[in-house]
Amino acid sequence: MVVEHKSPRHIFRRRAVMTSDTVTLHVRTLDVSEHGFGVIAKEPVRVGKTCSLVLNALVGEHVIQQTFACEIVYCILTGVDGFRIGLNINNAAIDSSKQHLRKIISSCSSPFS
Questions:
Q1: Which pTM does this prediction carry?
Q2: Residues 6+ apart with CB under 8 A from 80
Q3: Which listed residue, 13, 51, 76, 110, has the most CB atoms within 10 A of its CB?
Q4: Are 41 and 83 in contact (CB under 8 A)?
């Protein structure tokens, strides 16, 4: 499976909580872009479902808690680490989240592909 990314990704490692339907998982973020997040979880999730991702991020000198409404676009077994999950920010919520995403991305290192 080849996953094409719409924009540069930045390393972003945080603990987060992902909730989809009635399932709540503790996940770790791996990267962030203007379109969403890459996370890793111990359990698989269903592609195409919507979910919320709640995380704390250090922006400047402040820790903020942010909730993002996302769609699960892929879920791939990555060996002993668990499942790598791609989350796209929902189009309806992207305007309200874009400013927070930009703040998070500005605090990250250089992008990678």
A1: 0.81
A2: none
A3: 51
A4: yes
